Amino acid sequence: MQYRHAFWVIASRLILSTATQVAFAQKAPEVGYVFPPGGPAGSTIQVKLGGYDWTSDMEPFVIDSPVTLTISGPGSKMLVPQPPYWFGPKANSSKAFLIPREFPATFAIPTGTPPGLIFWQAANANGATKTGVLMVGHGAEILEDQHRLEPQRLPEFPVLVNGCIQRIEERDQYWFTLPESTWVTFELTARRLGSPLHGVLEIRNAKGMTVADAVDSEGVDTCVTFLAEAGERYQLSLHDIDFRGNRSYVYRLNATTGPRIVATIPACVQRGKTSEVELIGMGLRSREAKWESINTSVEIPATMQGNVFLATVSGSHGQVIEYSIPVSENSETVRGANGDQNHELTLPCGVTARFSDKRDQHRYQFRGRSDEPLRIAAESWRFGSKLDLSIAVVDSTGKEAAENDDLPGTTDAGLEFTPPADGIYTVVVTDTSSAQGKPSSIYRLSIEQPAATFALTIPQTASIPLGGEYNLPVNVKRIGGFDGAITLTVAGLPAGVSAPENIVVAPNKNEGKILLTSDMTSAVHASLITVAGTSTIGERRVIRTATAVAAGNPVARVASENEVSAMLLAVTMQPRAEVVPAHSGVSRTAHRGTTYPAEIFVTRKENFDGPVIVRMSAYQQRHRQGMNAADVTVPVGADRIIFPCFLPEWLETNRTSRMRMISITEVPDPQGNIRQLVNYKDDAISLSLEGALLKVTNPGREILAKPGDRIEIPIEILRSVKLPEAVRLELIVSKGLNGALRAEPLEVPAGKNHTVFEVFSKSDARLRGMRTFSIRGTALQQGKFPAVSQTVVKVFFEPSRAAE
Question: Which H helix or E strand runs over 2?
Fold first, then answer.
């Protein structure tokens, strides 16, 4: 063991000393999506984790939650987006989808886990991913049937559907009926999940008339409410606003019945008090599609834990309406209709207000003291309103003393302000949105005197090279006039990584550094670490845990929604190989529908002579309309390989197609654990497309049949003189028709251009109306490189004998 450690000390020093001379571009993994994207508390859900440039040795983590995540199997092949594709100018201007691999995994969600977002991530020896999200629910959930041929029926409400818009131009459709007339709300959650889906919801009745719709044009998720009649069949359609789609377009669609509350006035209520509250919503009093309100009393116990109170109120038709309302420690008031322009606020306070159509500024006065720092906030987005607020503080002479438009990650505004002198100051609240005058367009102004304290922030992910160093930055936010020294400590470091003791951030300084050091002999792993700061404020010993901003939810209503208390630190090893095309920077010519044998050069590092896996990268330059390649392994000691790239027959010839690659090498860490090291080079196999060598067609006319019939399909095969090969024909059906159609593969010899392909159908209920499938022809160039062409067949199945 001593000799082994000595070897690794020497080897690691050599690696570090040469890293700057032969620096391969290490490729860290990136998080993609999870499907299904959520589940109810008290359940264990089987999911697929979509990751970009992941390896088989990924380590999963869950942050700040009792939920556990386990990767339960190997990753899939690269999942290239399936047809249809964009063509023409839209294809050239659209950003390419990332290409994932999917790993089977299990989320165990304990009973009692509160509803909301769970942050998870993963790491390997190349680095750590950013965070992804999983949403915990509290009611009945179902999965979208992704292989259905007809709209999917929704069961008894309330129900939540986990779904995905998998392809361009896809629409997910659901139908439902209700036993009695009631208000129905469909709430779409996609952007909160990190999904790129900007959803469009459309509901039609049995006559095909649109009864309600909603469009998420702002990318903040959307919902729709309408009055459903008893016994009426309704159909809901969901698609992306630009009709885009791929496997990352996951969503949760929550269907509930009863009135929908969109705002409360006041927006917050005081702990330990009974408050009069106006509830604003649709359907609270009548069956008309209009905004209405109900007044009620809410008593908040002084001993209540948490900052959100769940309450109920009886509607005018006897229904029980559930709603939630935030709780504060301040005195909460409502701005009067006359604006209360000259009313001096008593601090601390919260004021709820609503902009009218005619007024675009609200002004509030307060008395400030030069020795009392204040925290001032104007919040609208937090409460589901869409005002875009800014605030300014002006002194008695009208001079602006402070201002803020948007806080990070939100359109809400806020600032900390210490009056330069005692006196009367005015807060000016301005809205620049177009949402004024709507019943839900409320905001809350709060002015507080924060206690002296501090907050710490750190990055959410970081990497440290084996045997190297990482300077962890710790940002300090000083609050309420606090200016003392802060002692920093680190917990949870990976084995072999150490930090100095008694790291001190000097008084009045706003940043500290923690030098982390990795030894050269430990196992290479990742770990969630925490940083804490300790200081004495007055006679109190105060400890604050540093927070980091999690990714995955781009539409958080408040910043704290994305705050986590841990950073994922990954120990990394340097890649050992790099792959580049033999004709780097030069476009080669290839035929559509064929396989191009690209020659690849392999550069090895640190005397590594083991196998090298060459894989298409998750990051491609543009939509490649299905261009793909399987993994290829470079043998021991070899320095070049053929990388077959398949070019579908529909690739456009007026543009260059490119294939980028990564290399993967397996190397043991100092403790003998095999780790996979990934290198990425921004270079590509560049191909200019010519016409196809093979074309398989059918007459294209509609074929009439009955379920159970044998269907004869005439096929014509066109070959180039460059492809004097036999063609193998086979049936391709969607998963929704698996088992309903079958056919034996047919070998068509070279020189024969016409044949009949037989398809056998079953008496299956799925075979009704128009159904499409494909017949694929494959010829092997040089006996090993496929040339492929497909033809689409349309068959109209007429009613027949009873389906099986």
Answer: helix 2-18
Most confident by average pLDDT, 57-71, 617-631, 688-702: 57-71
Interior CA angle at 260 toward 197 and 553, to 5°?
A: 30
| Residue 220 CA to its chain's centroid (Å) | 13
Cβ neighbours for 490, distance < 8 A, ≥ 6 positions apart: 472, 499, 514, 516, 529, 530, 531
618: Cβ contacts below 8 Å, ≥ 6 apart = 30, 52, 53, 78, 98, 99, 100
Q: Please, where are the H alpha helices in 303-449? A: none
Domain ranges of the chain: 348-448, 453-572, 574-690, 694-797
CATH superfamily, domain 694-797, is: CalX-beta domain (2.60.40.2030)
> What backbone torsions phi and psi does residue 93 show, to the nearest 5 degrees?
-95, -15
- CATH topology for the 453-572 domain: Immunoglobulin-like (2.60.40)
Contact 522, 675 (CB under 8 A): no
Per residue, the 3-state secondary structure of 105-149, as one string, reads EEEEECCCCCCEEEEEEEEECCEECCCEEEEEECCCEEECCCCCC
Decide the pairing of beta strands 503-505 and 548-549. unpaired
Q: How many residues does the chain have?
A: 804
Q: List, for residues 740-776, the tens digit of each pLDDT value.
A: 999 999 999 999 999 999 999 999 999 999 999 999 9
222 three-class SS: coil
**Phi then psi dihedrals of residue 16, to 5 deg:** -65, -40
| 3 state SS for 733-782 | CCHHHECCEECCCEEECCCCCEEEEEEEECCCCCCCEEEEEEEEEEEEEC
Q: Which residues, 6+ apart, have CB-to-CB distance to 17 below 8 Å?
A: none
Who contacts 361 (Cβ-Cβ below 8 Å, separation ≥6)? Answer: 428, 429, 430
CB contact set of 115 (below 8 Å; sequence gap of 6+): 41, 135, 136, 137, 138
CA–CA separation, 232 vs 81, rounded Å? 37
Stretch 369-376: mean pLDDT, rounded? 92
CATH 2.60.120.380 is right for the domain spanning 348-448: yes
- Bridge partners (DSSP) of residue 790 are 776
Task: Give me 391's structure tokens.
Answer: 């605030």
CATH topology agreement for domains 453-572 and 574-690: yes
Q: Are 686 and 587 in contact (CB under 8 A)?
A: yes
The model's pLDDT over 594-603, given as tens digits with 9 standing for 90+, comes to 999 999 999 9
List Cα–Cα distances, 278 to 258, 282, 323, 379, in angstroms.
Answer: 18, 13, 12, 18
Q: Which two tokens stand for residue 512?
A: 């500290």
Helix (H, G, I), strand (E, B) or coil at 4: helix
Count the helix, strand and coil residues of the chain and give each as a percent rounded to the nearest 5: 5, 50, 45
Residue 146: half-sphere exposure toward Cβ, Cα within 13 Å: 14
Topology adopted by domain 574-690: Immunoglobulin-like (2.60.40)
Rounded Cα gap, residues 500 and 296, in angstroms: 57
User: pLDDT at residue 799 above 90?
Assistant: no
Q: Has residue 93 got a pLDDT over 80?
A: no
Residue 20 and residue 427: Cα distance in Å, rounded?
Answer: 55
Mean pLDDT of the chain: 91
CB 238 within 8 A of CB 199: yes
- Residue in this structure with the two tokens 């023409």, named with its chain if needed: 88
Using alpha carbons, list the distances in angstroms from residue 387 to 86, 326, 356, 406, 463.
Answer: 36, 19, 12, 11, 40
